[in-house]
Write a sequence for this structure.
């Protein structure tokens, strides 16, 4: 259904019921699936037939929801994971292993930074972090002969820097590697990175896609455009026989449109089991059905709040890529002409203590380790989600000690602004 507009795909893509079948995506809440013969099940294990045998790898509910996200992004294949962290891990680990190297933007979510810089480094995968505003020459200098991918966030959480997708894609492709983009904040409603040269897209579906703080989850979508076979020695896991699956060569069996996701499912989901529960996938689909409507309101509220804060003398600075005059306004208009997201980052005069007091004074927005929810919430990243990072790493990621991340929900913008006004007046 990718030929339809995103608003239509939000409702109809991924699952088309037949006559007399459930109108809603059924929840297949089963760990296992029955077969009449061992031969029939064996064909599944050999990747010679399509079907399901164990929910640790695949589940019909999950696949139908993944297909909807795939249609929204304009990809060829997709999969759900247990979290956004799992999605980013799988996206990298599917093509990089011990002894390999990845180039990543430094302006990324703190949990992702820690995953890359600490945990995956312990696995033997080295990362070089570059500023999102680096020149092409600086980006080029970060590549090594063993580089396997480039990673960035469309809109960085919480710095709100905008990735120049075309620049990063151009450099990645010049070195024969894919660009992986985390598209969580704008969602495919406001940005489709594949149109600008990205090859793989990831999501924390926990955020806007779910939209109601109900279900943790992640997703990976493949554009099907990157030619792995042009670099077989660089991507042997995709281009050479997989001995753990009876010698199947993924690019030969499943083509460029299916090789990457099939390998991630057959190998990584088999071995790690970071599957999203079918119940969570069902809840995610409910969120997806209203995503196109909600994103419009989130952005309207974000723009109104950003404008108010930029004119308040108690605020030291405001970052919102949809705000005229913002450093990333031009890039945002290029890649996201219809809106960015509902998250606004700003500093309260008086530093960390004032920021903490401001958040405590709010009556509508709750202090939560969450973002992109139907209800407004806020956080002080330096002391919470990014507290594992050093001062130097925080600076590189664009996170100051006074930064407040404010996620505008679906409430009245007038009420949100009035609440901020009283919170600032009571500092």
């Amino acid at each position: 259904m990718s030929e339809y507009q995103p608003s239509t795909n939000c409702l109809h893509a991924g699952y088309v019921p037949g006559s007399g079948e459930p109108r809603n995506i059924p929840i297949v809440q089963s760990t296992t699936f029955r077969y009449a013969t061992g031969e029939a099940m064996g064909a599944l294990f050999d990747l010679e037939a399509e079907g399901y045998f164990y929910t640790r790898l695949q589940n019909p509910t999950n696949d139908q929801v993944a297909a909807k996200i795939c249609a929204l992004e304009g990809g060829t294949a997709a999969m759900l994971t247990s979290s956004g962290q799992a999605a980013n891990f799988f996206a990298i680990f599917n093509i990089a292993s011990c002894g390999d190297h990845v180039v990543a933007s430094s302006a990324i979510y703190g949990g992702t930074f820690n995953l890359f810089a600490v945990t995956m480094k312990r696995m033997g995968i080295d990362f070089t972090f570059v500023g999102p505003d680096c020149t092409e020459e600086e980006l080029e200098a970060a590549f090594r002969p063993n580089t396997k991918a480039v990673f960035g966030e469309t809109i960085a959480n919480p710095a709100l820097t905008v990735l120049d997708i075309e620049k990063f894609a151009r450099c990645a492709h010049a070195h024969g590697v894919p660009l992986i983009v985390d598209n969580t904040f704008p969602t495919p409603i406001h940005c489709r990175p594949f149109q600008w040269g990205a090859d793989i897209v990831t999501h924390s579906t926990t955020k806007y896609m779910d939209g109601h703080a109900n279900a943790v989850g992640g997703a990976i979508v493949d554009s099907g455009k990157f030619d792995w076979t042009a670099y077989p020695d660089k991507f042997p896991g995709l281009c050479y026989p997989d001995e753990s699956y009876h010698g199947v060569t993924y690019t030969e069996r499943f083509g460029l449109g299916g090789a990457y996701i099939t390998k991630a499912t057959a190998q990584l989901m088999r071995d790690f089991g970071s599957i999203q529960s079918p119940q969570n996938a069902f809840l995610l689909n409910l969120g997806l059905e209203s995503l196109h409507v909600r994103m419009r309101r989130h952005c309207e509220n974000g723009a109104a709040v950003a404008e108010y804060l930029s004119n308040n003398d108690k605020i030291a600075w405001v970052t919102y890529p949809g705000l005229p005059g913002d450093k990333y306004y031009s890039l945002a208009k290029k890649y996201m002409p219809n809106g960015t997201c509902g998250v606004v980052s700003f500093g309260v005069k008086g530093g960390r203590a004032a920021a903490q007091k401001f958040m405590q004074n709010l009556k509508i927005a709750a202090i939560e380790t969450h973002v992109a929810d139907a209800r407004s919430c806020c956080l002080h990243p330096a002391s919470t989600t990014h507290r594992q990072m050093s001062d130097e790493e925080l600076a590189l990621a664009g996170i100051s000690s006074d930064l407040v991340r404010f996620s505008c929900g679906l409430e009245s913008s007038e009420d949100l602004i009035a609440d901020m006004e009283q919170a600032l007046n009571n500092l």
In short: The mean pLDDT is 94.
